[in-house]
């Protein structure tokens, strides 16, 4: 019996379903990780995998990036938690503002879900209205306001609305189709109590779904015309797509932005930023309450400062390298599947891609759900046997990191060839 199976059997007795996040489970049991470095991750049996899950996008610079580890080690010698303001928090806030022109002020917190929850509360506090518009398949964390037709593990497990969620809360969440401006306009016309619109500018929790031409610019135009705050959830795309996230890439300025993941390259931290008049509503001066013992944790703050500084230093090489690798890989993968006559779609941008087993373009929640998830699971299992670790769900994304080499990609393409052969058969 493998060490991972032994550990999973023990874990099931003390942890619900044996995992601390649903997305980590897959049949027959997930492997347990022993260590990681660079582009690689090792399981409890010392098997090495090339890691393309990358902390679900957090590890843009790879595991154990030396600059970040050095910064964190220095901070560890000074203490782990103060619960008082630090000069480092100011430095980090200035770095975020310097990369995101739409952001005047920043509030640091811990998780992406906490950030989106605060962003929505800010929008409601600013407008004095109740309803929030979200898009089908966008995942904004596991809190009641946004856990309605969400992506990620919610979609993977077939949960449209979570048990335990309050109808009184979810009824104030209006869900429209992603990439469907007409649906958005119709919803706005029918509802006069809209506090904000929240969106993943690039949908990275239903597999990878890209915004169609003019979708984001039209979204910005419509929300401005109707005086509705626009929230860009850049938990995945912030720093990953560009130093200034998807909003830099597409040239859009939202009113509120959330970020996490690549902000600190694997350490627990998130942030909400936005216009001064909105951000100043936060307590203690304002009446929108938000608080956290671990907000501005000096360990995570030091990691985020080092991460952003490293990204800014190497950005010209970093993003061009990842885009080049992604184009080469996605094109080769497309050619393989085409040669094998396997119906498929490959969506890719920047350092992210995903394959869907369907003959129709994947442009929204429904077209993603209609792809053959059983074939994807067969692909995943074959890749795993070949030493390639991607997220175990069709509704996640394959992430490249700066640590990946051409040799890693060549080996991965060979594994995908075997995986596609297994799918075909």
TrEMBL record:
Chemical reaction(s) catalysed: (S)-4-amino-5-oxopentanoate = 5-aminolevulinate
CDD domains: OAT_like
Pathway connected to this protein: Porphyrin-containing compound metabolism; protoporphyrin-IX biosynthesis; 5-aminolevulinate from L-glutamyl-tRNA(Glu): step 2/2
PROSITE patterns: AA_TRANSFER_CLASS_3 (PS00600)
Endpoints of the signal sequence: none
EC number(s) given by UniProt: 5.4.3.8
Primary subcellular site in the record, as a coarse category: cytoplasm
Pfam annotation, one family: Aminotran_3
Cofactor: pyridoxal 5'-phosphate
GO biological process, any: protoporphyrinogen IX biosynthetic process
SUPFAM superfamilies: PLP-dependent transferases
Localization terms from the record: Cytoplasm
Sorted UniProt keywords: Cytoplasm, Isomerase, Porphyrin biosynthesis, Pyridoxal phosphate
Residue numbers of N6-(pyridoxal phosphate)lysine PTMs: 261
Gene3D superfamilies registered for this protein in UniProt: Aspartate Aminotransferase, domain 1, Type I PLP-dependent aspartate aminotransferase-like (Major domain)
GO cellular component: cytoplasm
GO molecular function: glutamate-1-semialdehyde 2,1-aminomutase activity; pyridoxal phosphate binding; transaminase activity
Family: Belongs to the class-III pyridoxal-phosphate-dependent aminotransferase family. HemL subfamily.
PANTHER family hit by this protein: GLUTAMATE-1-SEMIALDEHYDE 2,1-AMINOMUTASE (PTHR43713), GLUTAMATE-1-SEMIALDEHYDE 2,1-AMINOMUTASE 1, CHLOROPLASTIC-RELATED (PTHR43713:SF3)
Name this polypeptide is given: Glutamate-1-semialdehyde 2,1-aminomutase
Organism per entry: Nitrosopumilus cobalaminigenes
Native organism taxonomy: Archaea, Nitrososphaerota, Nitrososphaeria, Nitrosopumilales, Nitrosopumilaceae
């Amino acid at each position: 019996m493998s060490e991972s199976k032994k550990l999973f059997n023990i874990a099931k007795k003390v942890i619900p379903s044996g995992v601390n996040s649903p997305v980590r489970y897959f049949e027959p049991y997930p492997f347990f990780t022993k260590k990681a470095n660079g582009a690689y991750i090792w399981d409890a049996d010392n098997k090495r995998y090339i890691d393309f899950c990358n902390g679900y996008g957090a590890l843009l610079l790879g595991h154990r990036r030396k600059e970040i580890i050095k910064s964190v080690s220095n901070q560890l010698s000074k203490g782990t938690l103060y619960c008082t303001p630090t000069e480092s928090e100011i430095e980090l806030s200035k770095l975020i503002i310097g990369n995101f022109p739409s952001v005047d002020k920043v509030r640091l917190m811990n998780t992406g879900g906490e950030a989106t929850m605060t962003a929505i509360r800010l929008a409601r506090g600013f407008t004095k209205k109740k309803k929030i518009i979200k898009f089908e398949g966008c995942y904004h964390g596991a809190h009641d306001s946004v856990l309605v037709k969400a992506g990620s593990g919610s979609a993977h497990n077939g949960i449209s609305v979570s048990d335990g969620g309050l109808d009184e809360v979810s009824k104030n969440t209006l869900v429209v189709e992603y990439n469907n401006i007409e649906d958005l306009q119709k919803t706005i016309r029918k509802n006069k109590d809209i506090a904000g619109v929240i969106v993943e500018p690039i949908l990275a929790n239903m597999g990878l779904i890209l915004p169609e031409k003019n979708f984001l610019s039209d979204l910005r135009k419509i929300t401005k015309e109707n005086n509705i705050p626009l929230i860009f959830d850049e938990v995945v795309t912030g720093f990953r797509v560009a130093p200034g996230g998807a909003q830099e890439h597409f040239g859009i300025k939202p009113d509120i932005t959330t970020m996490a993941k690549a902000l600190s390259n694997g350490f627990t931290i998130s942030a909400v930023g936005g216009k001064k008049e909105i951000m100043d509503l936060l307590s203690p001066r304002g009446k929108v309450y938000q608080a956290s013992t671990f907000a501005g944790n000096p360990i995570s703050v030091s990691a985020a400062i080092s991460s952003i500084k490293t990204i800014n230093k190497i950005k010209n090489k970093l993003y061009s390298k990842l885009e080049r690798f992604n184009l080469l890989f996605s094109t080769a993968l497309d050619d393989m599947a085409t040669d094998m006559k396997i119906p498929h779609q490959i969506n890719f941008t920047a350092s992210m891609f995903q394959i869907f087993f369907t003959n129709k373009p994947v442009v929204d929640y429904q077209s993603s759900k209609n792809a053959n998830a059983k074939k994807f699971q067969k692909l995943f299992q074959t890749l795993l046997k070949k030493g390639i670790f991607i997220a175990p769900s069709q509704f996640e994304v394959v992430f490249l990191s700066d640590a990946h080499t051409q040799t890693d990609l060549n080996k991965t393409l060979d594994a995908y060839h075997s995986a596609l052969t297994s799918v075909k058969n």
